[in-house]
Amino acid sequence: MRVAILSDIHANREAFEACLADAARRGAQRLVLLGDIVGYGADPVWAVQRTRELAEAGAVVIKGNHDEAAVEDRGGMTSDAGAAAAWTRAVLDDAAKRFLDTLPMEVEEEDRLYVHADAQHPTRWRYTRDAEDARAALEAVRARVVLCGHVHVPALYGLTATAKIAAHRPMAEVAVPLTRPRRWLAVVGAVGQPRDGNPAAAYALLDTEANELTTLRVPYDIEGAARKIRAAGLPEGLAARLARGR
Amino acid sequence: MAVQMLQEGQELDGFRIGARLHVGGMAALFEATHPAHDFPLLVKVPRLAEGEDPAAIVSFEMEQMILPRLTGPHVPRFAGAGGFDRQPYLAMERIAGPSLLPLIEALPLPIERIAEIGAKVADALDSLHRQHVVHLDVKPSNILTRPGGEAVLVDFGLSRHALLPDLMEEEFRLPYGTAPYMAPEQVMGIRSEPRSDLFALGAMLYFFTTGERPFGDPQRLSGLKRRIWRDPQPPRRLRKDCPDWLQEVILRCLEVQPERRHPTAAQLAFDLRHPGQVALTARARKERRDGWARTIQRRFHPDHQPRFARTRAEMEDAGAAAPIVIAAVDLSEPDAALQAALRGTVGRILATLPEARLACLNVLRQNRIALDMTLDEQGNNKHLQRLVELKHWAAPLGLPEGRATFHVLEAVNPAAAILDHARANRVDHIVMGARAQSLKRRVLGSVSAEVAAEAPCSVTVVRSRVEGE
């Protein structure tokens, strides 16, 4: 089965639609959204509505820190993120907030764990930035493969039986075998706000039979998404960074 | 992980296991058959007994990752694999021909044979490198030969795939490889340099030429590192009849700094196929090893110690920056404007790619029926005359020796001759002129159109702008 894994959509309708279309074209039969449906972008109402439809059709949806902040102000965000969260809280209705509030922190499926941030302490929203973070996460859970987001930069880490860990920067369109008995942690890139210097939307496709993970990059209407952010009066930096991919 | 050795007659995922062919340090090999595969098969099983080197597991995992992703005649075809959760195995095509290992019983080899083997192995390495893989264990026992003559590389247990995670790098602090053939940068733990394979091939060619290994067979890390500062005896010192060009090629492969070796395996193969066109440097003339002062300096002086580094981005397009470019020049009906336009295009390609090399080509057309005279009406040698004209055409490009080679091919069909040359030399780009409409072209058809349609690589057709039509 092919599972499309999308993370950090951030209310970017253009990028979200482009990735969903790409995943459908590539024969994805199952959809997993790793959180941060909203925040930063100008289309939170649409993004939540679309996510609810997808969830009703069977998609797995995980809660991200921006989804939490869209329900209730918990503080601790950068000024741009805080401003976007406040705006998002103002435009979402109660039903949308209820949906975001009830999302699970993590879901286990077969030998996989889906989580938004650090798998060791999902509610602390920590970043899995390097091999040591990945090792700590893998040692804290029993799933063979952990799939997370939150970092906005794709990465792949493999843990061996002898407790060594290999870090890898996944290349677009290259299917990487998630060999057994090794355990793997994949940080899926961001759909709605990539930060690895490549502005194209990122998601991943997992082939559970071939046991391969492919990182994909999808072009989308960046100018359109940025224009809406400016029109909504959100901070200029949130619009400008989409074209830079930083 | 309780893994049992396979038994003859056993069945495994549809593979019927046959006789055991070989048991090595890391794996055992069995003959096999499978109803879905119509070629002879080999099943490789790692040795995973208690307390054995964990390298065997990781290396087997790497080979299982890499082999299914390789294609072409220079690797065994992948047939199937089993993971460590059950019986780990790797099934692949069994290559009928022998490895190069028996050759070392009959050293030194004749010079032509060394060049021929070297070119075929370089072809295989070029094919591998273009698939983003560095072999990292090139040695006689890992090179087989197909009945058709193509070299086949086997055993990807130490290999590195540029686009896949490198499991070996994290697992081991000591370098893995085979001591006599390991490149200096590989000794220092770098696993992403395609030219490490050219070093190993150079060490093999040195061995075939002289009967001696250039750096012996050291068993300790300190002995392995010696090749970083101590140069080998020049091959001619051990074999008087080793030609200049072969010493040049071998010592270039054995350069400590990868940047000083051939930029690509295809360029090395090109040199081995055109000995007369190898640009000779001080390497070709070298009579003895470097003196003690230079050697001591290289070993101890921080400014003279080699440094090895390579970014990953470079490996991903290995070869793309160092193509072999053919300029096919028509000298039979010289059209000065077209020749200048062709030269301009070639010059711009070479200016953007400093490691590209140029092969200037002219086809001396032969008569289909009569046996051609090699001399023209004035008694001049036509072949030599064409060579002179070809060099004259290229002179304004101002290329240093070694960057361009010159070839006059004698053939009935010019397009077929250009295409054959491009295939045999793994050419990346053909640049040629197209004549304007003429009676001759209408009668004979367009050479450039045929080349463009059939070429195994990019073709640029240059035409001087036609005004007023």
CATH-defined superfamily of the domain at 2-110 and 173-179 and 191-244 in chain A = Metallo-dependent phosphatases
Which architecture of the domain at 2-110 and 173-179 and 191-244 in chain A does the CATH hierarchy give at level 2? 4-Layer Sandwich
Largest sheet of chain A: 6 strands, mixed
What strand order characterises the main sheet of chain B?
A: 1-2-3-4-6-5
Number of H- or I-type helical stretches of chain A: 8
How confident is the prediction overall: mean pLDDT of chain A? 95
Keywords:
heterodimer, A: 246 residues, alpha/beta, Purple Acid Phosphatase, chain A, domain 2, 6-stranded mixed β-sheet, 34% helix, B: 469 residues, Phosphorylase Kinase, domain 1, Transferase(Phosphotransferase), domain 1, 6-stranded antiparallel β-sheet
Summarize, please:
The complex is a heterodimer of chains A (246) and B (469). Chain A is an alpha/beta fold.
Reconstruct the topology from this structure:
The complex is a heterodimer of chains A (246) and B (469).
Chain A: E1 2-6, H1 13-25, E2 30-33, H2 44-56, E3 60-61, H3 65-71, H4 79-91, H5 94-101, E4 106-109, E5 112-115, H6 131-140, E6 145-148, E7 155-159, E8 165-168, E9 175-177, E10 183-187, E11 201-207, E12 212-218, H7 222-231, H8 236-244
Parallel strand pairs in A: 1-2, 2-3, 5-6, 6-10
Antiparallel strand pairs in A: 1-11, 4-5, 7-8, 7-10, 9-12, 11-12
Helix pairs in contact in A: 3-4, 3-5, 7-8
Chain B: E1 11-12, E2 15-23, E3 27-34, E4 37-46, H1 54-66, E5 78-82, E6 89-93, H2 111-129, E7 133-134, E8 143-145, E9 151-153, E10 160-161, H3 167-171, H4 184-187, H5 195-210, H6 221-229, H7 235-238, H8 244-253, H9 265-273, H10 282-285, H11 292-300, H12 312-316, E11 324-328, H13 336-352, E12 357-365, H14 382-394, E13 404-411, H15 414-424, E14 429-433, H16 439-444, H17 447-454, E15 458-462
Parallel strand pairs in B: 11-12, 11-14, 12-13, 14-15
Antiparallel strand pairs in B: 1-2, 2-3, 3-4, 4-6, 5-6, 7-10, 8-9
Helix pairs in contact in B: 2-5, 2-9, 5-8, 15-17
